[in-house]
Amino acid sequence: MSHQTPGLPPHLVDLADSGAVSAAELSATLLRYEYADSVELVARMASHGTYTAEQIITIASDVTAGRPVVDRALAPLHAPSMYALAYLVLGEAFGAHADFTEAADLFALSRRVADRDGVAHMYDREDIQTHLAVGRVDYVRQHTSQANPDVAANDERSWYHWAANTDIINPFRGAEPASLETWQRAFNAPFVDRGLATMSFEATATPFDTVRTDAAAGSVDGPLISIVMPVYAPTRSLLTATRSLLDQTWGNVEVILVDDHSPAGHEEIFEETRALSDRVSYHRMPQNGGAYRARNLGLSVARGEIAGIQDGDDWSHPQRLERQMAAFGRDERLVATLSKSIRLHTDLYMTRVGSVPFAKNAPSLLFRREAVLGRLGPYDLMRKAADTEYIERIATVFGREAVRTLKEPLALYQLTDGSLSREDFRPSWHRPARVSYHSAFRHWHHRIRTEGLEPRTPDAEGHRAFPAPPELEGTTYADTTPDVVVLTDPRPGPQSGSGVAGEISALHAAGLRVGLARTDALRFASRRRHYPRADVLDLMAHGTTSWMTLDAPIAPAVLVVRDVELLTLPRSSDTVAMTPGRVVIVADRMPTEGAAPRVSWHPPHVEATVRRMFNRHAEWIPATEEIGQAIWASGVTGTIHPPRLMEVAATAPFPRRHVDGRLVLGLSDPSGYPAEQASRAELAALLPRIAHHDVRLLQAPARATLPGVLAFTTDMITPSAFYDQCDVVVVPAPAVAGSALLRPAIEAMARGCVVIADPALRGVLGTAALYVGDDPVEQVLDKLAADPSLFAEQQGRSLAFCHNDLSAAAYVAAVRTLTTTGGSR
Question: 775 and 710 in one domain?
C-alpha cells in the first residue's frame, strides 16, 4: 500500500504511483510550463516513496564528497527517475546566479545507480556540461570520449565531448588552461578532419575577434553572392564578421551592411567597416524595426544570383561559401543550403549548460535569390524567431530535398549577452511566444502544402498569413480585456479537452471575444513538446481566437479552466501576468475515484493555486450534483455553481440510421496517453463473437491491436469518420482510474451511435448512454439487432441529450452569465 511522502499532497502521490507517466515525462513537463513546488513529486518516483528531495540531495552530496553511504541507503533509488530528478533540479537552477552543484551531484549518483542496475545512462550531455560547470574535470574526462567528433556521422555526443575536453584546457577560462598553441590544436582537430583551413587566435581580452586562417582569399570564381548583414549597436565583432566574408575563398561576394537605426556613438565602427572594401555597402533603416526588416531591406538591393545572411557578430570560415556553393553544383534541385556552426563565447569557451556546441546555423542560409524571393517574398516581419519559419517555408514550397544542411562546422556563432534569443531557451523550456509562433507558422505551411495557399506574408493586401504573438512582432496585444480566456491542454493526444474548438467557435459566433491559454495536464506529461490540434490552429488562423499566454498582461472577464488538473500545481510567481476578473473551474470528474492505479485531484489545492497565481477565489462548475457535493465536502471556500456539463456536441447532419441484423461495433480507445487508455485485456473481454457482429477498433498509433479485429489508428482516420462506420460504440474505462473518456462518448452519440460507456460516466450521461457491466456487450448487441425500435429509442435519447444539454446555445448561455455577473476576490 502506498504511503505518504512528507510535503507531497495525496493527489500527487496518486500521480507518482499511478504509472500513467514516467519521471522523465513529468520533469520535462514541469520545466516546460514552469510549475512550482514540484520536486517532491519526482523525488517520490526516484526513491519509490522512501526519501524526500532534500534527503536524496544529501545522499548525492555525500557520495560525491566520498562520505560513507551504506548500500541499503541506495537500494530504493530508481536510476531513470533519479536522472529525471537531476534534470528537473538542473532546469530549476537556471537564473542570474545559477548554481549547478546539486544537479551535478544528482547526475553522478544517477550514473552510479544506473551502473548498479545495468541500465543505460541518460541525459549524458547535461551530465557532462553540469560537471564541467562546477569544475569536476576528472569526472568529465572519465566519462567522455577523447576522440575528435565525427562530423560525417553527425554524432552529437562526440561534439559535446570534444567541446568539454577542449574547454578544460581553454587558455582564457579553462579549469586547467594550456598554452594557446596546445588548445588551438585541439580546437582545430574537427576542421582538419574535414579538410578545412585551421584557425589561429591571439591572447587578448576578446580572442574571438582575433581569428585568422591561412586560406587563400578569392581563390574560387563563380556567380555573385550577396550577403546581407543586419546590425544594431555593433561591437568590434562587426569588423571580424565582415572580414570573414571578404576573406572567403569564393571571391565574388558583396556585403550589404544594414544598420537597424543604431543610436549615436556607433558611427566610427560603421565607417571603419565600410572602409574595409568597396564590396561593402552601407544602408540605414529609417527607424529600428528588428533584424528581419533589416534583412528584407538588404535583400531588396541585393544583386547576386545567390543571396545569403550572416549575423554581425559571427565569423564565417573562409571556405563556408565555397563549400555551400559546391552543394548547389552537385545537385541542381537545390534552392537553398545551410551549414553548421560551433557555438562559443567571446573567450572561445564552447560549453553552455543546456545548449549544444555544434548546431545548424540558421544565419548561414544561402538561396537562389530570384527563385526564392519571387515565390516566397521576404522574411516574416518579426522581432525574432523568423529564421526557422523562412527556412521551413522554402522547404514547404520547393520540397524538403531542395534544402540541404551541410554537416560541417563552417562558422563560429558567438554567444553574446545582447542576443535576442539567448534567454528564450532552457532545458525543456522555450519562451511561450516562440512556441505559439512555431505552431502557427507550421500550421500555415501545412495549409500551403494541402490547400495551395499563397506562400507570402504579408499577402498582396498587406494581411498576415497567420497569427503571430505580439511579443515577437514587437507590438502589444490588440485586446487586453477579452470576455473569456479558456485555459486548456490543446494537444492532439489527450481526449479530455478535444471539444474545446467547438466551445470557442460557439462563443465567438455569439459575439464574445475569446482567447486561449495552454498548459499540459500532468497526467498527460510528455518529454517532447507537441503542437495543438489542427482544429484549434484553424481557429487561430481564421481569427476566431488567439493565444493569450498566462505571462501576458491580459485581464479577461473570466478565465475558464477546462481541466481541474491544469491547476493542481501552481506556476512560478514570476511567470503569471494575467489578471482575470474571475476564475471558473470546470469539474467533470470526481476528485477521488477508483482504486490504485489512479490519478486524482484535490479541490482545496486547486483553490490554493488559484489564489497564489491570480489572487482570486476559485469558482466551480461541477458536471453533476454528486461532483458538486464532493467538492463542497472537501472544504473549498469558493462558489459552487449549479451542475452543468460544460461541453458542446456537434451533431451530425443526418445521424439517424437504420439497423437490420448484423451490427458494426466500434471499440473507442483513441488516446495517445496511458492515463486515458484501456487495457488490452479489458478490451478483449468486451468482444462479442467475431462471426456474429462486425468489430472495429479505434486506437492511437503504435498500440498493440486485438486479434481478429479491424483496427484503425488516429493518424489514419478521424474519430468522427470512425464513428460514422459504427452502429454501437463501446467507450471503456481507462486502465488508470480517474480520467474517464467523456469526450469520445459524446462524439460517438453526436454521430448517431448507441454508446456503451464506462460506468464512471453514469452520473454525467444518465440515460443517454448504456454502461459496461450492466449487461454483456454481446447480449446488448443481439437485443438491438433483433429489435431496431430499441436501437432507435436509445439513439433518440442520446441525440436529445446532445441537442438539449450539449447545444452551443446552452453552453454560450452558461458562459455569458459568468461574464455579466460579478466575481469575487
Answer: yes
Q: Which of 612, 633, 654 is the last residue before a domain boundary?
A: 633
The model's pLDDT over 588-638, given as tens digits with 9 standing for 90+, comes to 999 987 788 999 999 999 999 999 999 999 999 999 999 999 999 999 999
- 635-668 tens-digit pLDDT: 999 999 999 999 999 998 888 877 777 899 999 9
Q: Do 124 and 224 share a structural domain?
A: no
3-state SS of 728-765 is EEEECCCCCECCCCHHHHHHHHHCCCEEEECHHHHHHH
User: Which residue shows C-alpha cell 558611427?
Assistant: 267
Q: Rounded distance, CA 558 to CA 581, Å?
A: 6
Q: Which set of grid coordinates corresponds to residue 482?
A: 477579452
Ramachandran class of 658: left when φ > 0, alpha when ψ lies in -120 to 50, beta otherwise: beta
pLDDT at 705: 87
Specify whether the CB–CB gap between 728 and 668 falls below 8 A.
Answer: no
Is-above-0.90 flag for pTM? yes
272-280 LR contacts (CB < 8 Å, sep 24+)? 272/239, 273/234, 273/238, 273/239, 273/242, 276/239, 276/242, 276/243, 276/246, 277/246, 279/246, 279/253, 279/254, 279/255, 280/242, 280/246, 280/254, 280/255
The amino acid at residue 638 is G
148 located within any domain: no
Distances 277 to 235, 243, 282 between C-alpha atoms, Å: 19, 9, 11
Indicate if 266 and 377 belong to the same structural domain.
yes
Contact yes or no for 547/436 (Cβ under 8 A): yes
Domain boundary among 95, 117, 142: 142
Residues of the chain with pLDDT under 50: 1-2, 420, 422, 825
Cα distances (angstroms) measured from residue 166 to each of 174, 340, 576: 8, 19, 41
**317 vs 164: CA distance, rounded Å:** 22
Cell 530504493 sits at which residue? 76
Cα–Cα distance for residue pair 483/386, rounded to 1 Å = 31
**Residue pointed to by grid coordinates 522523465:** 24
Whats the size of the chain, residue-wise?
825
Report which secondary-structure segment, H or E, holds 629: helix 625-633
Query: Can you tell me which residue has the cell 488538473?
Result: 565
Spatial distance between the Cα atoms of 586 and 641, rounded to a whole number of angstroms: 10
Of 409, 410, 431, 412, the closest CA to residue 420 belongs to 431
Residue 380: HSE in the Cβ half-sphere, 13 Å Cα cutoff: 30
Quote the CA–CA distance of 78 and 82 in Å, as a whole number.
Answer: 6
Phi, psi of 457 (to 5 degrees): -145, 125
pLDDT of residue 822: 64
pLDDT of residue 572: 86
Question: What grid cell was written down for 339?
Answer: 551549414
Structural domain that includes position 117: 10-142
Q: Tell me which DSSP letter residue 545 carries.
A: -
pLDDT tens for 10-60 read 999 999 999 999 999 999 999 999 999 999 999 999 999 999 999 999 999
Terminal Cα-to-Cα distance of the chain (whole angstroms): 40
Would you say 307 and 225 are in contact if contact means Cβ atoms under 8 Å apart?
yes
Backbone phi, psi, residue 199, to 5°: -110, 150
